[in-house]
Amino acid sequence: MGIPLMDIRAQYAPLRAQLDAEITDILDTGTFILGPRVKAIESEVSARLDNRPCVGVANGTDALVIALQALGVGPGDEVITTPYTFYATAEAIARHGAVPVFVDIDPDSACIDPDLIEAKITDKTKVIIPVHIFGHPASMTTILTTAAENGLSVIEDAAQAFGAADGEWAVGTMADAATISFFPTKNFPGIGDGGMVVCRDAALGDLVRRLRFHGSEDKQTFTEVGYNSRLDEIQAAAVRTFLPHVNDWNDRRRQVADWYRECGLGEHVTLPVEKDAARHIYHLYVIRHPERDRIREMLVEEGIGAAAYYGIPMHLQPVFKDLGYSVGDLPVAEEWARTGLAIPMHPNLTREQVEEVVAATGRAVSRL
Questions:
Q1: What is the pTM of this model?
Q2: Residues 129, 93: contact at Cβ < 8 Å?
Q3: How many CA atoms lie within 13 A of 31 on its CB side?
Q4: What CATH class is the domain 245-366?
Q5: Band (37; pLDDT cuts 50, 70, 90)
Q6: For the chain, what are the domain ranges?
Q7: Cα 183 from Cα 42, distance rounded (Å)
């Protein structure tokens, strides 16, 4: 691939010696689970997020599952969320026997449309999960107001958006809980699976810590039915190594987005939008075009990475067929699913590469 969609190795290459030293030290000490590096990264991420308690877990999906349980979600409850997201968001809800209730998305940001949430609230609704999709923050002020007026909890799914902000508020600091994924392709990555739950207060943090370790504080007394979901020392070491660089990586992603605009990509396709007061960190750069699939094929033929994300929205997935949704029920999400195309976006892209992607996209569109 001449210009890959992502380039993980190029991102961590300058830090390889530091990573190697950390991993060697872990092997030498023999401390692999819930050791000093896990405690350190929990503290360091907390310092970035208004000193909220942070709890490292095995992956971003477990972070959602555990956060939902900690907030009391169980069988028969309803959880409102977006249909335009990775399956893990809805899967975590269903894992508890709860019902995902899908609300259509904002046509510009692709995040859940806050003005449509109120109509979906019932006496069974327990939680709202907005997803800061592709790195663009959801409209949290309206969401939080709606939740407060209806006695609901809110979980921010921030798997793709560490460092993004909605106005003055950093993603991860606005709700009852937030979840982070350290999957290697995320903008705040590890080198394997890992995740974190950010909690509103110490009491919720203590509960999440018990839940990640079989519902126990001491391996002897078990107060909840929990999970074996612990962030390991190697992943904690990697995330700690990367954390000081995330702001720079996000700034470089934003620079790439500026280059795409400056180089005229908007003459060929619909570009991502950064709404007023939002700070988008472009975990993915998703353009839109009615002939998405043909453009993708032509870009790949030219050696340029391109991929369709979330081509089947959650409400139309086979696993949720019994919920009774049909094609046309959530038209904005369905339109994004038909037309959205991720093109190369990572901190190591050069302007020359961006110009090449723009030119190739123009050639593809002209051949339609």
A1: 0.97
A2: yes
A3: 12
A4: alpha beta
A5: very high
A6: 8-244, 245-366
A7: 16
